[in-house]
Amino acid sequence: MVFIRYLLAIVLFITGIFCVIRFFMDDWNWVFLLAFAACIILAYLIKPSSSRHQRAGRRNTDYSWLDIVDLPIELLFQIISWPFRLLGKLLKHLDIDFSPDL
Questions:
Q1: What angle do CA 63, 64, 65 make, to 5 degrees?
Q2: DSSP code string of 32-87
Q3: Where are the transmembrane segments (predicted)?
């Protein structure tokens, strides 16, 4: 089951890379950029988590090469989610009250 999840994550990652290439080649078609973000987020959510305990147990198996897949998927997910986390920290720091005073 872990192998299937990794395989699906790899397919989604490659599809996302294809979509970002099409975004730049196809006159900035925003559908491809949204598809890229969706594919990378889904790939991150589908791939098995890489906790220390699971990585240590998986190193003894034949699928240890799949650990290489974790790095680009997690890196792109962090790049995509970084602006949203930054905005959340900014709004939390400013403590803006959006409720109207009636």
A1: 90
A2: HHHHHHHHHHHHHHHSPP--HHHHHHHTTSTTGGGHHHHHHHHHHHHHHHHHHHHH
A3: 7-24, 30-46
